[in-house]
Amino acid sequence: MKQNKGSIAIAIVIAIIIILVGAIVFLAMQFFTKENSKNTSNPIQIEEGNLQNKEKDKNEVQNSIKNEVQNPITPILNNLGENELEANTTPKLISNTYYYNQLDSNGKIIYDALKKNKKQLETGTYRFDFGTQFNTLLHTENGEKELGEAFQSAWNAFYYDESDLFYIDITKMTLLTQYQTIGGITTYSVSIGPAENSSYLKENFQTKEQIQIAQKFMQNIVNQVVEQTKQDSAVEKVRRIHNWLVTSVEYDSTQNSINKGHIYGALYDKKAVCEGYARSLKYLVESVGVPCVLVSGTGTNSQGVTETHAWNYIQIENKWYAVDVTWDDPIIIGEGEVSKEIKYKYFLKGSTTFLKDHKEDGVISQNSMKFSFPTLNVEDYVGF
After folding, report:
1. What is the CATH number of domain 208-360?
2. 85 vs 103: CA distance, rounded Å
3. Predicted confidence band at 58 (pLDDT cuts at 50, 70, 90)?
C-alpha cells in the first residue's frame, strides 16, 4: 500500500513537471514570436537605471508593411520657440559646431555666451549680459534688426548643434536692449534672459534637480551605448543605434506629448515625432565619435503628402549620407518581420535616392539667416 501511494506521488510530481515545462516552452515561443519583427543580430541592450521604464502604447495604423511608412510629420522650429554631468563625454567633431561655423561675428558672440554658460540655462533665470559689445552695431541704421537676426540665428545654430536642450522654451526668453544718454552720447547695453521676469524652462522641468535627474537617465543610456559599441566600426555603431531607436521608440501619432520633439521624449517616454527621433540619433551617434547633423526640410510620403520633417546627415569615411530613422520605423499590425528593404530604406542614403522624397530647407525659423547643410554623397553607402 505504501508502495502504491509512493508511485502515485511520483506520478503526480512528474505530471506537474511536464506541465510546467510545457508552459515555459509555450510562453517562450509566444515571446520570441512577438519580438521577432524587431530583432537584430547584435542588438544594443539598455538597462535604464532606477527611473521607471514606461511601457509604450502601440497605436494600430492601417498600413501594410509592404508600403512606405505613412507616419505623420510635425513642424520643427517654425514657431520657436558641479557634478558628474559637467564632464563632456561627446568627442569634438565637425558636427558639434557645424551650424556655429555659419554664423556672422555677432551671431558667434551670442552663441559663444550660450555655449560657455550652458549649465546656467538649467536655472531658467540666468541672464546673459553682453554689456556694450553691440553698442557700435546699434548705432547703425539697421542695427536693431541685425541684432535681432543675430540672436535668432545664434539660437537656431546652438539648438541644432546641441541635442540635449530638452528643458528650454525659447519663447520664454527675450533679447533686452537698454540705453543711457549722458552728455548727448547714447550707450547701448544688451542682455538675454527670461521674458517678463519668469523662467524660460519648460513647464515639465521647473527645477534644476528635475533636469539633472533626466540628464543622468540619458547619460546612463549613452554610457551603455558607448561601452557596447566600442569595438564596432563607424558604420556598425550607427547601424546598431539606428536599430535600437527603431525598436525602442514609438511614433507619437497623437501629437500630444510635450516631449515629442526632444531626446527626453524618445529616450524616456519612448514616444517621439521626427524631430525627437533625429535629435536622439544625433545625440547617441555623436557620443560614439561619429559626426552627425540635424537637418530640416520637408518630406513627401507615398501618398503624395508633403509636410515639415527632420532627419540626419552622417559622415562615414569622409562622405555624408542621409538617415531618416522616423521613416525606417514602420508600424505593423499583427505578427510579421520587417524586411531589410523596409528597415533600411532610409539608412545611409546618397542624394540620388534620398532627395527624391526629401527636400532641404535651411530657413529654420523666421527672422533668422538661412543655413546650409552638408553635401550628400551621390550614391548610397553599400556594405553594411
Report:
1. 3.10.620.30
2. 28
3. very low
